[in-house]
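#data-curation
PF: Archiving a pair of folding outputs for the training set. Convention for this channel: one message per protein, sequence first, structure tokens after, nothing in between. First:
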Amino acid sequence: MGCQEGMGRTKRHRSKNRHQPNSLNLSNDPAAISLKQWLKSHEFADPLKLQLRSFADTGRGVTSTKSVRPLDVLMRIPFDLLITFDTIRKSKLVGLLTRPLSIQTLLALFLVKERHKGAQSEWKSYIDSLPYPEPGLPWMEHPDEIELYPEDLKYLARNLQGNFQECLESARKALAVDKGLEYLLEEPSLRWAYVLVNTRAVYVDPEYLMSKDSSNVELLADAPFLALCPYLDLINHHYLAKTKATVVSVEGRAFYELASLSGFKRYEQFFISYGAHSNEKLLMEYGFFIPGNLFDFVRISLQEILDSVAVSLDDRQYKYIKNYEFHADDLYVNENGASFVLKAILFVGSYPNIVDYASYIFSNRYPNDFEQVLSLSTRRLLEFKLAAYRKDVKILPKSNSEVMNDFLRYRVQYVERLLNLLDENKLCFS
């Protein structure tokens, strides 16, 4: 029922830059040929002659047989070839729902249903282009292996597992499944679809969808902001990617258009950006990471500050910090130095006699000697994390996934780089 290998994403943990002209043509792959023919039969615009190629570091990617100039249109896909909430409400899936579901769960169920149809599905060419089984992600590993993850990655893995279980349970509660439709709620099938939606869906403006048709909105537990976009979802991610996606009208028909905001050489891989994601997020949710990622950081916990930095908080200081509403992601060090919240907490912990902390923090006017205090505290935190990361590398067995082992080694190198920048006075503490 479809291509067993599909044209799946591959792990890209060794990718160092986006310029990778050496590649192997994949356009003769039967699934690629079928997908392209299906799209073109529905007015898919391919002005730059897009081509699938296998690149040394990223695996399968998309390029062009022509050079790309800034503002060139890479592809223009008929909007009705995107799988959106509009697609779902026109399908027989609607008649099975007894309560609202998230757009992600609805898209996943739709994929399961269409894959089960096989040759009878009008989406067969697209379904055949999807990898089967789903790509392995760190949160999908055996529980015994996840138990060996560092605490921060273990926490993320369990959250992602919880998200999938929530999807599965909500689907089982919402679907009135008759005999012969039990396949919709089988865990392996739904996990396959869930992973593909989570790793491939693009953002669409929910207001645009609702302006076309607001019926069946009661079936949604959230906004219909996700869609699956054939062929576009074959393009890999890079944090430097600069593209623009818009809905345009051509002779009265809506198209989803992707344009490049930068130039590319002939056969050079081009990318889209999934967002400003750290390597931690890319690894856990997409199964790869990118050395040199500008959005990378070293996460710091409040307990690690207390354990590694020579501060002792009295009741007033501790209460001020606890009352200061911040998210765990707000505490970090990256190549720009300590985050705003980390700087504030280190300031409070280092100056017990100051009465009005807020006047210093929110004006960003700290005492003259605080820069030296901040630099020393940041060094202690990074050295603390470096020791922990080195320990993580030794604990995780070699039998675990290659990408996880590579990521743990990369984290060590990243902290070492931050310490070197600190030695060279290149971390920002102003």
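PF: Second:
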Amino acid sequence: MQLAVKPAVYVLLITMAQVAGQEDREKTTALKDLLSRIDLDELMKKDEPPFTFPKTLEEFEYTFNELGQLRHTRTGEPFVFNAGEDLHRWNQKRYEALGEIITQYVYELLETKCNMTREILPVDAVDEPTSFIYLSPDALTNPSKLLLLIQGSGVVRAGQWARRLIINQDLDSGTQIPFITRAMEEGFGVIVLNPNENYLEVEKASEPSPLLSLTESSDEPVEKKERIDDKETKKKREFYEKYRNPQKETETERIPIRENASSEEHVLYVWDHFVSKAAAKNVFIVAHSYGGLSFVELMIQRETQVKNRVCAVALTDSAHNVWLQETSKVTQDWMREHCCNWISSPEPLDTPLEPMLPDCPRVSAGWQVHRQRLLWWESQRHREARADVLEELQLHLQILQQGPGGQRLRRGRGDLHHRHHTQQLPEKQTPGFVDGRLQCPGAVGGGVGWSATDLMIL
């Protein structure tokens, strides 16, 4: 009897397990179906505040203190990104609105503190989208030295290296102003390029939905129109309307700026219309990230002119690629002699790094993070040995220095405070590095430019 019962019990238990398993699968399927109908990004928009933000720093209740740090006017605290809890999209929009205000603030500093003037591009623009660059008073008339500053890609505009550093650190860390003021003090003309101002953004004209137009033009009765609507779609709509009420962002379209629709076009345009007409015999370039790629493209398009005018190029985390950009061997050889690329690296500053491509030397920028390599000098800011604040403002990178035969020279940091003028070179002598100092024939002040440690870049 017991033997007969046991198989029946086993069958019952197996059946119950199968039924339970089937119920679990059905629950799992139902849960997956529910989750598939939920747009998590849209749920995050629930109950967000309007996208209306202050138009000035004062309205934002922020200001830059005497150290150039952004601080809250009432609390004195640094900028706080998460002003609204669980409102990432709104916080990001608020951050971008503040960034636009800071862009205008930097423009004002270029004009008031650096005494630079704005030049409109294209130069012959009439009733069309325009961009602009900034020139020092002697940018086109300085007979000796001209410095070009080319930033990377992104939201940064003229005068900025990194918006995040301006907001989270200070103006000296994230703007080009320390470079500009030092260059002017050393007798350089300066041109600040604006390679990311490529288009005019305007509100897109609303277009009627084809589906809506088709429905409106139909003579079918309302009852039939409702039946056309998919039942699942109606369920989703009801679900969303119950749990969220997202804001719609304004749709925009971009109108490109003539001959300046990209960073590469912009750099080429500035060279043709400004640099090539400048009086300076010796041109120096600082190019960061994508700015390095744009410089190499300029080199390809205007190879002879660049070779005749450019003395040295300091690249930082440059995005160029001599193979993909199809540079010639002659260009690569010139870059090895006149360019140096400072790369984000944990190695000490100026430590030679293995070259990845047959172009310019690569050395350590003394910092690991791409966007924060500008901050290396922060760790040095309080060193007692550095008494000269102008040296601090150069942010620790240096123009390539070479000795006879192209051999790279190593100089100690102590040379930073011992700059000696050398005798003026003959007028026909080619600019280059002699005894560790960059010689500029015909330059004011004994024909000498900056030493490698004098021109601290990025």
